[in-house]
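Hello,

Following up on my earlier ticket. Below are the two sequence lines again, exactly as submitted.
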Amino acid sequence: MLTILFDGIAYGMLLFVLACGLAVTLGLMNFVNLAHGAFAMTGGYAAFIAVNRFGVPFLLGLPIAFLASALLGIILERTLYVHVYRKSHLDQVLFSIGLVFMAVAAVDYIMGSSQVFIDVPDYLKGQFNVFGVGIGKYRLLIIVICGLLTAALQFVLSYTRFGSRLRASVDDARVARGLGINVNAVFAATFAVGSGLAGLGGALGVEILGLDPYFPLKFMIYFLIVVTVGGTSSITGPFVASTLLGVADVAGKYYVPKLGTFAIYTVMIVVLIWRPQGLFARGSAK
Amino acid sequence: MSATPLNTPDVARLVMSRARWRFSEIVFWIAALATIFLVPSRHLILTEIAILGLFALSLDLILGYAGIISLGQAAFFGFGAYCAGLLATHQLVTEPVLALALAGAATAALGFVTSFLVLRGSDLTRIMVTLGIALILRELANRFDGLTGGADGLQGVTIEPLFGLFRFDMFGHTAYAYSLAVLFVLFLLARRIVNSPFGLSLRAVKGNPLRASAVGISVNGRMVAIYTIAAGYAGVAGALLTQTAQFASLDMFSFERSADVLLMLIIGGTGYLYGGIIGALIFKLMQDWLASMTPQYWQFWIGLVLVAIVIIGRERLEQLRGAIRKRILRLRPQKHAA
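Thanks for your patience. The regenerated structure is below:
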């Protein structure tokens, strides 16, 4: 029972790291980016290549995943995304679906369509017992890393100069520009970090979620659920939402496997109808 | 709804002139009819194009005329497909046309029920809700595998001869004539709908919901109505596919299908009904051509087209289409111009 809770929290934390970049682009910048999963997939494959092909230690593979995705993110942001920020939601949807299709086919072409696994070092395998609760070492690692990242993100957004610049740019880009904030650079940096985090999450998640070229399509809905249900006004909302989603998903699959993912979609629709701004929104700001 | 007394004749004339059949439209349908006799060897792919065209038409009704972005139109396509399949496998309704109408009606009912879910919220909420509905239906079809065949798809769909006379042959001759006829009839209906006062009020809602409600248009009522109609159209399209392919599978609900139909509509252009059909034609030919070159990776090029369309700008594409249309219109006999 507690083990399920533990696994669920680990899963939720992972979802949060995967989706928090989306919370910024979708939530704060109001850009419907369905291609977010593609960055996660990039990170996953980057870590896979580094660890399995070049024998890089697993823990070093994670920052590599982050950098690879962040790099891809910044390149795409500067070349393509920047033209689409001001377009309609329909255009953004089309654009990001196009990117997803391209990413899926490209990865399929380069890496093959079969599922891949990263060699996890022995010290991360297995589980130990604390007061009768089975704790998987790998999942503990996920919780630790994701917990630290969450704290760091919260700190950066709330207490640093960059955080206040970002919030200012999002609240009113024109005024922020007038105050001398380089809004484009702020957005680009945020986008890169968000993509990087997705990549990191993708690399961490290979062990749990699996990784194949269809990853962006399979998990797209999960990321969107985290962001829309969690609301977008803070980082706490998506965090709570992803933890709930993780626990619910793991528990649901364990206790009522017949129900499958059905329950989650239903809950999502109910929440969206009930509170279109998300569960934890501070009302509609704009 | 009473029209404003001021310059009513002008408004009426404008509406009438919009609704008038243009020369190019007549040519379009004659050409479509001619394909039945001229290219019998390509009837299989043409059947698919006609069905996809109808599907894209259904999306055009809600996206082009009511401004609802849906990423889950495949929900209705799949639902209609399974309805038709189940009607046939259980020998409930054996007459294809009647079964088609029933499947369409059932899907419209589903559309009516779910339409209330898309009324609220922003574009993003609608995207999520429509996507969620498609996923739920897919999951349901997967779970109730006793009824639907689950991941194996619905097997053993045998369709009785059309009107008891025309058997569905393996070359797709009957299937194509049937699909094209259904497409034409439903197109006429859609054309009638969008050119009616109801259709005009829809455009008003799309343009500005607040103002539309200020002049006395019930915004929610219009949304529910058009969403229901569009769901019915998508259901008929799905049912047609089941009847002509004699098979229904889970991928009819898939996200890719919703995305593909959106792409077709965007290629063809929204808001003038032909966009979906022309888009389906271009999309299918392009897919066919790409798949013959790179069997596995054609999706990459489809994605590239999508990205290119957005980066270039749909407005510019629209201008291009406008120019082409003008050129075609110039072909029409001068006596009509007066």
